[in-house]
Structures are given as C-alpha cells and as structure tokens.
Amino acid sequence: MAQQLAPFPRSLGMFKAYHAPQPETLVLKEKIMSLSGDSFDIKTIDGRPVFKVQGNAFSLSGRKVVMDMAGNQLFTIRKRHLRLHATYYAEDPSEREILQVEGKFSFGSSKSVATFTGEGGRRESLFMKGDFFDRKASITDEASGQVVATINRQFLNARELLGGQQTYHVTVAPNVDMALIVAMCICLDERRNEK
C-alpha cells in the first residue's frame, strides 16, 4: 500500500522533532465515539501513537487541535471564512499563524497549496493534488517538484459506510515534517466533508 518516497534533500517543515527519519506511514483514523465527529487518533502503521487531534463540534471555524502524545498543543487548524476557495490555516499556541492551505479551482480533481515559513525563515510551498473523490492525493514540493507525501483514503469500508468515519494512510518522505503533512491531510478531509 505504501509508496516508497525518496528522502527530501534537506529538512522540510516547521516541527524538527517530527521530521521522518525514514519513510513513515501514518494512519489517521477518525474516532467513532467522538462528539465532534472530527477527532482523530494518529499512529504509525505498526501502531505507535504519534499525534492526537481533537475536533470542536461547537466551533464555527471547524477548529481542530493537534497535540503530541503528552497532550501538548502543537497547533490549531481553522477554516478561513468568506473566501472564494476553501482556505484553512494553522495557529501555534500563541495564536500566531504558521500555515495556510488554500484550495485552487480545478476540474476533476482537488488542488490546494500550503504555504509556511520553514527553517531559516525560508518561505515554502507544497502543492497537494487529489482525485475527484479525494481517495488519493500527492503532496509535492513546489520548488523542486519532488513528491514528499502521499495520502490514501480507505474507501467504502465498514467504518465509513456505517459511521461516516474516515481512515487515511499517509506516507511521508524522510526529512519531511509529519505534523505538517498531518495538517494538510486534515484540511483535505475538511474540504471533502464540505462537498
């Protein structure tokens, strides 16, 4: 299932502690008993917990808090309203914007561009392109054209059919920030839920 991705030639992301040391496949599984319906458990393919995502059912902006396994908040994802294309952003715990994921117009697929400031103040852009049903997506570094992550959504499984809960398999290239890629996957899920 997992695609082998070449190491990115330098560190790419915002959270150095979460850069993948080797190709890493994460499983994002929506919690069935979540009140918000948008809380996720995130583990490696072999079952090691990595992140927790807590959705807020009473938030107009669809707030999702991404935490480490000790419960420390890494960032919060929110929807930016009154935009032509679906746009999401992430704030650090001090409410400073650290990431924006903006949808782009496209026929037959979904496209988004994520922009953030990486190491050394470098402005970075990642391009995410999914198929029409958002079952698969690839994330590419815009400057080099290298694929840095892939997303596969399990489609028409019992969890989705009976409870509407999504399961994603996200493969991250070495030297790429897993927290950043998780944020982009959550934005893809939010955009899919709005269709």
UniProtKB/TrEMBL annotation:
**Pfam families, per this entry?**
LOR
Which family does the record claim for this protein?
Belongs to the LOR family.
Q: By what name is this protein known? A: Tubby C-terminal-like domain-containing protein
Q: Which species is this UniProt entry from?
A: Apiospora hydei
Q: Which Gene3D superfamilies match?
A: LURP1-related
